[in-house]
Every structure is written in structure tokens, then in C-alpha cells.
């Protein structure tokens, strides 16, 4: 083995240098790689040298290392396909386009006998290992239907990012959508195996480039925020906001911390906070926060980072219930609908009187597409009225205590009585927004279902008894919502229906965790995690565009498939190269062909473009 120089590179023996081709200006580099036996082995790769001159000073020239054109192996120079192409170009001969960008063409038939004899002035070993030949089978179908239906996402990216950056973000998002979250160490293998490598052969996806790019995305949040702001400006104005916990498997992550889900996941967590358009079913923002940070604190950063349009209605979870957040949610004529936590005093007061005098019918579509009608009972009040009731309740409690105290002091002297302090009712801290509406709902079907499920568990443990059922049963199926939406425009039924749409964000987070599998991340770097959180946003947009195209199909077969079923069925179609050196698509069933057509894929045209290298 050669000895490394001061720079850490290995010296190339003269006998190896003598084997490099003489027709191309090039150099040989020695690279050490582990071998199966003890120690490591040196490999000698040949790189073309590129000479560039300085227009301002022609006497100054610069020599840089170009592409790898082969290697020295077995006592001879073995060119790769780039080397063969460059040899033909330098000879002034026509390059066979079919050969130049196609795998498996580096055998003896690629060069004439004269070319073999003249190349490097030495015997050339033209037989390459399989690992050195481009793949001749590629994943096609699943990528084709995604590319055909989600081009709008790439168009939006092009408005804010450079063409190359947009392609890279889009390609990574497509891979995550099709193959689940893929660590950077495996991303190149997935990319090379897919038709994406034919569409964008110069994208340069590798572990190093992807890791660096994700970090760059996190280091430049302003452009990512502009992209999200553009989505917000185009949104419907009915926006759900909620956080999502992601398990962190890296103890070194700057954002990883023990949070509210520790009892469930038993490890540190990261928090992702998103804003989501529940009408168009599209995520608008996505940002990573420290795992120990409460949602009601992180949302303040989110609302201050983006400009939501006037009269936006926020659909939010009880975790954001605080006076500070409610102030932010109402600024600039904005509206909100939020559940009142059970621990809140106005919730406890409201539940003491369960006399519902009004009702409406809520229609919803279940997972099988069937419409169900649920009877919803409701009662309405305001924050100030409920606070008055709570204050009166505290006064009555003080009076009762004083009465009991007076009764116990009847046998004592007047001097002893004078030393006893009276009870006074605590003055509550009133909300600055007493006019907010508070509406209590009870879903009768849900109430009956929960009663039935509780009865099935009676006697199985201490928490399921008849006494507990009498205590808790009346409150089953109840939710209390607070809103600042005007009663003249929004009936209690309209408020309820709006809040129920927030469930779309929960469905989206289920997709993020269980379908795309952004979970158990091992990312250490803060900026890289922020870059990944931006890709969670773009993957969500791809999902929305894909689903929109699928649901617009006139084929019931296509519309009844789940997203994963679409990808699996389309994934049966592979690209392959045979002896004629042309790409072919595997024979498909009529149903698979129907799916491809309904999703906008023209397979015959794709083949023409692939073989003309115009895909």
C-alpha cells in the first residue's frame, strides 16, 4: 500500500500512472477502502482534468478535477461510460445517444477494434462489474401517478426557490410520500432505483448533498416562511392549528426534550406545530419546536411569524386555552372556536345544569362514504354570565362555611367568638372578553355508545362500578366550545360543524406518523430538523394534490382506493431494459392501466420520452 502524503492523500506509483490514457488530459487518484481481509485496499480512479483560462489574464490558467472516467484495475485502464463517451468526443466521432445515457453499454461491443487499440495505448479491460453498470430495472408506476397529479406543488416551489432547489425539495418529498420517510444514508439507493433518476439525472441526490441541503433549508427560514405565507394568502380562512409529538431517538438533538407524552413514548420528543386549511385539506405551515414547550407557548411564535388574513377563523384544541392566546386569536378581526377545558371554572359551572332545551341534526360522512345523522343537544351562555354564576357559587360556599362556623361557636364566650375570622368569597379573575359565547353540546349517539361501553366493563376493575357510572354518565358525549363568532351569522349548529372540521388536521397527523412515518427520528442538528419539518409541509401538499386528483376521477374503482392502495397497485409497473437497449414498461392488468389513466399518466408517451432522453 502506498504511503499517505502530508495532505492525507496516497501517492500513486509510477507504474500505475503509466497506465492512464494518453488521449485525455487526466490524473489518477488513490482512494483507500476497507477490504474483507484485514486492513484496507487502495483503488486507483482516473479523473479528467479541465483547463480553464482567465479572460482578463490569458497567461493565468486554472486546472480543476473533472468527472471520473474510469479506473486502473488488473494492470489496465478500465473506462466507465463517461470515459468512453469522452474518448469518442475527442476523436470527433458521433456519440450514440442510445448508448451514452443508458445502462449496461460498457461491454466489448461499445468500441471498435481500432478504438480499443488506440485507447491509452494499452490493453483495455472493457468488462465492468455489475455494480458499475446503471440499473436496468426502475420503479415506475407509483412515481408516475404522483408526478402526473402533483405538478402544482413543484410550480409553487418554483415561485420561491431556484429551479434546482425546487426540484430537489420536490423529489425528496415525492420519495417520502411514496416510500415513507427515508434517512439520508439510503436516499441515493431509492432515487437511483426510481424513474426520478431518469427524469432528473443530474439532480445529484446523495447522503452528503441531502444532509447539507436539509441543513441549508433550516438555516434559511425566511424563504420557507415566504413559501408558507403564500399558502396562507391563498387559504380559505378556516384554519386548524395543533401540535404533534415526534419521538426523538437522538439524545443530542437540540430540540429533543422530555415532554407531555413521556409516559406514552418513554423517551424524549420533538414538537411539530402546523396550521392547516380544513377546506382545501392542505397544510399551510410546519415548524419544529422544543419537546418540553407547551403548545400554548409555541403558538405565540407561530402567529407572530405569519400574517393570517382578516376574519380568519382558527379551530384550536384545548391545549391553547389561555387569556394570552385568546387575545392573539382575535386580533385583526380574527375569530376562533376552542374547547373549554374540564378544569376551567366556567366549564364546571355550566355542567351543573344539564337541561338542554334545544337540538339540531348533525350530518357526517363515515369512512365508507355513508351519511349519518346524529342528534345534538345544546345550551348557550356567555363567559361573563358563567363567571357571575361561579362568583355566586363562591359566595354561597363562604356563607355555608360561616353558618357552620356560627353553629359551632354557640357554646363559646363572646370574647372567643370575636377572635374567630369569617370566611369571605374569593374574587375571581374575570376574562377581558366576557361577551364570548360558550355553547355546551351533547352528542346523543355518542352518549349512548359510551354508556353501553362502560356497562360492558362493569365489575372488571375498580374504576368501572355503578356508582362511577351514575357520577360520570351524564357527562358522556359532552363538549363545551368557546367562540367569538357572531350569533347573528353563526348558529350553534354552524359553530359545531366548523369545529368538527378540525379533525382533518388529526387525520393529517396520522398520515405524517403512520403512513409517511416521520417518527423515531435520529436527527441531531437543529437546522436539519427544521429542514425536515419543511419537508413535512411539502409532503402534505403532495398528499392533498394526489387525493384531489384521485377523488376527481369518474372511476369508482379509483376513488374507493386508499392512497397506499393506489401506490401499491401502480408500483407493480416497472421500467426495464432488455437486449434492444430500450426502456419498456411491464405488462399491466386492465385495472392498473385504468388507475394510471385516471391519474393522468400517458404510459406510451412516457416511454417515447424516456427513450429519447426527454422525460
Beta-strand content bin: 15-25%
Outline, from the CA principal axes?
A: elongated
Between the first and last Cα atoms, what is the distance in angstroms? 45 Å
Q: What low-confidence regions span 5 or more consecutive residues with pLDDT below 50?
A: 1-8, 97-126
Could you tell me the number of beta strands?
A: 16
When the domains are counted, the total is 3
Mean pLDDT: 84
Largest sheet: 9 strands, mixed
Helix content: 40-55%
Q: How many alpha or pi helices?
A: 26
Spatial arrangement of strands, main beta sheet:
8-7-6-9-10-14-13-12-11
Notes on the protein architecture:
This protein starts with 13 loop residues before the first helix and ends with a helix. By secondary structure, the chain is an alpha+beta fold. The chain is elongated and about 120 Å long. The strands form three sheets. A nine-stranded mixed beta sheet has the order 8-7-6-9-10-14-13-12-11, with helices on both faces. A four-stranded antiparallel beta sheet has the order 1-2-3-4. Strands 5-15-16 form a three-stranded antiparallel beta sheet. The chain has three domains: 14-132, no CATH class; 135-317 and 504-615, no CATH class; 333-402 and 433-501, no CATH class. The model is unreliable at 1-8 and 97-126 (pLDDT under 50). Helix 6 runs antiparallel to helix 7 (163-179) and helix 7 packs across helix 22. It contains 26 helices and 16 strands.
Amino acid at each position: 500500500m502506498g504511503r499517505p502524503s502530508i495532505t492525507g492523500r496516497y501517492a500513486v506509483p509510477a507504474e500505475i500512472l503509466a497506465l492512464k490514457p494518453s488521449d485525455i488530459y487526466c490524473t489518477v487518484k488513490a482512494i483507500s477502502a476497507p477490504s474483507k481481509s484485514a486492513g484496507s485496499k487502495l483503488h486507483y480512479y482516473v479523473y479528467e482534468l479541465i483547463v480553464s483560462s482567465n479572460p482578463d489574464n490569458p497567461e493565468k490558467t486554472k486546472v480543476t478535477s473533472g468527472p471520473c472516467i474510469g479506473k486502473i484495475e488488473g494492470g489496465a485502464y478500465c473506462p466507465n461510460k463517461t470515459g468512453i463517451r469522452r474518448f469518442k468526443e475527442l476523436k470527433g466521432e458521433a456519440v450514440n445517444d442510445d448508448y451514452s445515457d443508458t445502462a449496461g453499454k460498457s461491454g466489448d461491443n461499445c468500441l471498435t477494434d481500432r478504438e480499443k487499440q488506440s485507447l491509452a495505448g494499452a490493453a483495455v479491460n472493457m468488462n465492468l462489474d455489475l455494480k458499475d453498470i446503471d440499473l436496468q430495472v426502475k420503479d415506475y408506476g407509483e412515481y408516475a401517478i404522483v408526478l402526473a397529479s402533483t405538478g402544482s406543488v413543484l410550480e409553487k416551489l418554483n415561485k420561491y426557490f431556484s429551479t434546482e432547489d425546487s426540484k430537489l425539495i420536490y423529489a425528496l418529498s415525492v420519495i417520502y410520500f411514496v416510500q415513507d420517510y427515508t434517512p439520508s444514508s439510503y436516499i441515493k439507493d431509492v432515487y437511483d432505483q426510481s424513474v426520478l433518476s431518469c427524469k432528473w439525472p443530474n439532480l445529484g441526490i446523495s447522503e452528503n448533498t441531502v444532509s447539507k441541503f436539509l441543513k441549508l433549508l433550516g438555516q434559511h427560514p425566511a424563504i420557507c416562511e415566504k413559501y408558507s405565507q403564500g399558502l396562507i394568502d391563498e387559504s380559505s380562512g378556516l384554519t386548524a392549528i395543533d401540535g404533534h409529538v415526534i419521538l426523538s431517538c437522538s439524545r443530542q438533538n437540540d430540540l429533543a426534550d422530555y415532554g407531555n407524552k413521556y409516559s406514552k413514548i418513554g423517551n424524549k420528543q420533538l414538537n411539530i406545530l402546523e396550521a392547516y386549511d380544513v377546506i382545501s385539506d392542505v397544510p399551510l405551515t410546519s415548524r419544529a419546536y422544543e419537546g418540553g414547550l407547551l403548545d400554548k407557548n409555541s403558538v405565540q411564535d407561530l402567529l407572530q411569524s405569519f400574517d393570517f388574513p382578516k376574519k380568519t377563523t382558527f379551530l384550536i384544541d384545548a391545549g391553547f386555552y389561555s387569556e394570552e392566546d385568546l387575545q392573539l386569536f382575535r386580533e385583526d378581526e380574527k375569530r376562533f372556536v376552542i374547547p373549554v377545558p374540564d378544569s376551567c371554572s366556567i366549564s364546571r359551572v355550566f355542567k351543573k345544569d344539564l337541561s338542554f332545551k334545544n337540538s339540531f341534526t348533525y350530518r357526517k360522512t363515515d369512512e365508507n362514504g355513508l351519511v349519518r345523522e346524529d342528534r345534538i343537544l345544546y345550551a348557550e351562555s356567555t363567559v361573563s354570565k358563567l363567571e357571575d354564576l361561579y362568583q355566586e357559587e363562591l359566595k354561597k360556599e363562604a356563607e355555608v362555611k360561616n353558618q357552620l362556623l356560627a353553629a359551632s361557636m354557640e357554646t363559646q364566650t363572646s370574647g372567643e367568638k370575636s377572635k374567630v375570622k369569617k370566611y369571605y368569597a374569593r374574587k375571581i379573575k374575570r376574562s377581558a372578553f366576557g361577551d364570548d359565547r360558550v355553547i355546551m353540546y351533547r352528542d346523543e349517539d355518542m352518549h349512548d355508545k359510551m354508556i353501553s361501553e362502560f356497562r360492558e366493563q362493569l365489575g372488571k376493575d375498580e374504576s368501572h362500578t355503578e356508582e362511577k357510572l351514575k357520577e360520570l354518565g351524564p357527562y358522556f358525549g359532552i363538549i363545551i366550545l368557546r367562540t367569538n363568532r357572531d350569533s347573528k351569522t353563526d348558529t350553534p349548529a354552524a359553530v359545531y360543524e366548523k369545529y368538527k372540521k378540525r379533525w382533518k388536521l388529526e387525520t393529517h397527523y396520522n398520515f405524517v406518523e403512520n403512513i409517511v412515518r416521520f417518527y423515531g427520528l435520529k436527527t441531531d442538528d437543529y437546522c436539519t430538523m427544521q429542514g425536515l419539518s419543511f419537508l413535512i409541509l411539502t409532503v402534505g401538499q403532495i398528499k392533498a394534490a394526489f387525493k384531489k386528483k384521485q377523488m376527481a376521477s369518474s372511476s369508482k374503482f379509483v376513488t374507493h382506493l386508499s392512497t397506499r392502495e393506489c401506490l401499491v397497485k401502480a408500483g407493480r409497473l416497472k421500467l426495464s431494459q432488455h437486449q434492444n437497449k430500450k426502456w419498456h414498461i411491464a405488462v399491466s392488468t386492465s385495472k392498473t392501466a385504468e388507475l394510471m389513466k385516471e391519474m393522468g399518466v400517458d404510459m406510451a408517451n412516457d416511454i417515447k420520452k424516456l427513450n429519447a432522453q426527454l422525460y
